[in-house]
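Sample pair:
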Amino acid sequence: MKKILIMMLAFLFITGVIFAQDSETDESDTSGTTAEQITPSPSGRYLEISSELKTGLFMERIEYPLSIIGDNCINCDYSREGLAICPRSECQNKTNIRERARMHNNDDAGMLEGRFRLDLHLKDDDLKMGIKVRFQQEVWMGNNPPGWDYAYVYGNFFNDQFGLIVGMLGDSPWAAGFMPVPVGISPSYMLTELDKQFGFRAEIKPTIVPGLNFGFVLNNFNNRIPKEYAESLMDILLESVVGIAYTDDFFHGSLAYRLDSGYDKTAKGEDEGADLMYRLEEKILDKFIEGFSISANGWLRGLGIDSSDKELVNFQNWLYIDWAPDDFSSQLYFGFHTGKDRQEIYAGLSFYYNIFPWLSAGLAGKYYENFGNNKVFDIYAVKRVVNGDEVSLSPLAIQRLWSIEPQVRANLSSSSYFALVYSYEYGYLFPDGDRKTQVLNLRTVFTF
């Protein structure tokens, strides 16, 4: 703890030296300036509004085996109606088929009917301050008000060398960025250690090193705490994030580390450990091959856990190769993840050709396999008791999976489109057998 406080004090001292040097430069630069020249300009305050709506028509057909437990057959359809237990003789070696249709867009639009976003940005160029708010609605049934994806006030001071952001945080300069959602991980769980939490972020952007951004985030606990309040200020400080990023014309890199105080615990009463996130991008190849770039990011969870149960330790690594000139867009990505008794590989490929300015077509595919000893991600598996025995009936017990997804897209404008997508996915569920999923999705996207 003392080391952390010493680091923070050293950080503030260095920052003060940088600001002091810059302030002296500013005073000398304005020594010959008249009063009329330094009079503030008229108000530069303005409001930016943008929005996005994603929805669609979704039809799905799933074929999967019925689980055999003892003398019973378990209809593992993951529905709210229950397990539909029946005698083994009635369903052995049979396949269950489930078909459903609903309003839904399965391309990053939430888990239900669709997603609506409204972004507001109030900016004052004279004060160098602003407010950013994002309202987001994904649950449309019942009386559910919109959620706040982020809502914060920011300011840039000392000639833009110091930034302070307070509120429900977003747009972190040290974030790892987008990652494909791994098998067995809820999309809402991904990448919430830097953003979507209430706190304040301090950023140092020294002019002596253009492109450098470093600082820290003081925020709240990211798990359960035994009492309503922390017992000491140190418990909160030890949940802080420290981060650094550097960007120039050839390279971008960022690294963030979230500490863990040990005061908050998981549902099992254990420490969740610290987190480390990184992102690397090269910008040189685009100068020789139009639209070509390579990037990587990753997330190491559960650092410092002192327990025999390492379920929360998970190291995710992704590599992306993108090529998007005017005529087409393509991506090749790879992922390698390690965890408790898990060794996972991911691979994905997509290619879409612009036939006309308003029409494009192509396909995407992916492959996943778990080589580890544990074929079920226990912290996500649904545990049920059948005839006194606890069994796992989770749809996430996937050992191997591949899919192919052709798509035709019609652009209504540069930012709105309809897309017709067909997807065929094959997965092997441990230990039950094969699962085959077919999806037809008419996606609708409007942005403003």
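The radius of gyration is 26 Å.
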